[in-house]
Amino acid sequence: MKHQYIIQSGHPRLLVFFAGWASDPTPFQNYRPAGRDYVVCYDYRTLENDFIPHGTYREADIVAWSMGVWAASHVVPMLDVPIGKNIAINGTPYPIDAGRGIPPAIWQGTLDNLSPLSLHKFTRRMCADTEAFHRFLRVTPRRPVDELAEEMRAITRMLDALPAPAFAWQQAVVGNNDRIIPPANQTRAWQESDARVTITGIAHYDEPTFKHYLQDVWINDK
């Protein structure tokens, strides 16, 4: 797993954002959560928990999106810092699952046919409409396709090897227009937890939603 600190200014609290598969910090680097340092985690070919220096922060808040929800479910319980609020967006702790995540046949088909063209189509399906897609293209990650295939294969291996995550999410946001992870599967997954579920009309990637949960929601929570 890779990480990049966007804000590292000695704030007593930290916002940790777990981005999705194929992500890097580029789409998320302009957000400024009030009163917090801010780090983006991505590239889940491995899962590490040593990116927060010991004794640096009083508390860490967690936001995770898409495949980042699964990654955070495993990493956050091992972090050396008290955990505050935590919010999952358009993802589940069971990312490749017929009833609670991406159906396995679709995941395998994506991997088998991964190419620059198929990635372009995937990106378009993440967005609600052409305008949102064009905005995303201005900040789209630039990771090589072969690296993204490695990430998918590594996630598949870890899903087989790791125990089911036990992290207790407080809040989950489900987008009814998500064309990547079926909304019904997301809802079904969260029904197995105590998370408070908010159902919205957003697509898988929704810029206003990230602005809210990576910036605005923290203005009155310093």
Descriptors:
single chain; 222 residues; alpha/beta; seven-stranded mixed sheet; 7 helices; globular
Summarize the structure in words:
The chain is globular, with a radius of gyration of 16 Å. A seven-stranded mixed beta sheet has the order 1-3-2-4-5-6-7, covered by helices on one side. It starts with a strand and ends in an 8-residue tail after the last helix. It has helices at residues 67-75, 104-112, 116-126, 130-137, 145-161, 183-191, 207-214, and strands at 2-7, 13-18, 36-42, 59-65, 83-89, 171-175, 196-200. The relative contact order is 0.18. It is built from seven helices and seven strands, in the order E-E-E-E-H-E-H-H-H-H-E-H-E-H. The longest helix has 17 residues, at 145-161. It is α/β, with parallel strands linked by helices. Strand 6, helix 6 and strand 7 (196-200) form a beta-alpha-beta unit. The model has no long low-confidence stretch (mean pLDDT 97).
In short:
The chain has 222 residues and is an alpha/beta fold. The protein has helices at residues 67-75, 104-112, 116-126, 130-137, 145-161, 183-191, 207-214, and strands at 2-7, 13-18, 36-42, 59-65, 83-89, 171-175, 196-200.
Rg (CA only): 16 Å
- How many DSSP-defined strands? 7
Could you tell me how far the N terminus lies from the C terminus, measured between alpha carbons in angstroms?
A: 28 Å
Please state how the strands of the largest beta sheet are arranged side by side: 1-3-2-4-5-6-7
Low-confidence stretches: none
Estimate the mean pLDDT confidence: 97
Biggest pleated-sheet summary:
7 strands, mixed
**Helix/strand class:** alpha/beta
Number of helices: 7
Q: Write down the secondary-structure element order.
A: EEEEHEHHHHEHEH
* Shape designation: globular
Helix content: 25-40%
